[in-house]
Amino acid sequence: MTASLSLNSALYAEVTPAGAWYAVSHGESGADRKLLLQLLQHGGELPLTEARLLQWCEAASLEQALTVLYRLQRLGFVQGSSDGRCEPAGSLESRLPALLAQLSGEGRALLADDNGLYYAAAGFRHEAAEQIAALAGDIIGMARRHSRLLQHNLGLGAQAWALIDPAGHAELGFHPLYLGRQTFLLVIGGQPRLGDSAFVAIIEALCRRYA
């Protein structure tokens, strides 16, 4: 199968919301995650040539790199686009509040780091955002301490945490995002909308700065 694979170097490789989530929802490093992170940084702006694919995959051969790309396409994590796009105007800090608001059915979300400091928020007052960010920092610390139990002993793949109501619906969800050496917590009030293009836009912006 891999012998018949080829690359259309006129296309731009765009990461889907599912691909963006896969790229940052765990801290393990592999060829597929490396490629996704590179595409999140440059994929919409640079055509995917063979040279770039090899470099971004850090693969030993073009055949191996094409196999990685093909797998990501089959999983629905990457799709081709004939049109490129420029990096959005404005700073990350100025763009985040509007993007965060789109990730929640209630318009309430914030981005915090693993030190318990928040970068931007939508729908939360400043004092509440500070306290929620501190809680997020405690949660990521707890998750790290118990990662062996959760991931290995219990075999739980999900790393998100939530405060739920009696019906099991999340009232406040905490979603870790791993970008290089930096860990963030995406905190969403109410129903999350991580399948939205705004989620990809946030991850792209964070990747350009931190990945």
Q: Helix fraction?
A: 40-55%
- Overall outline: globular
Q: Summarize the biggest pleated sheet.
A: 5 strands, antiparallel
pLDDT under 50 segments (min length 5)?
Answer: none
Instruction: Please give the alpha-carbon distance between the first and last residues.
Output: 32 Å
What does this structure look like?
The chain is an alpha+beta fold and 211 residues long. It is built from 8 helices and 7 strands. The strands form 2 sheets. The chain has a 5-stranded antiparallel β-sheet, with helices on both faces. A two-stranded antiparallel ribbon has the order 1-2. Strand 5 and strand 6 form a beta hairpin. Helix 2 crosses helix 8. The longest helix is centred in the middle third of the chain and has 20 residues. It is globular and about 55 Å long. It starts with 11 loop residues before the first strand and ends with a helix. The model has no long low-confidence stretch (mean pLDDT 89).
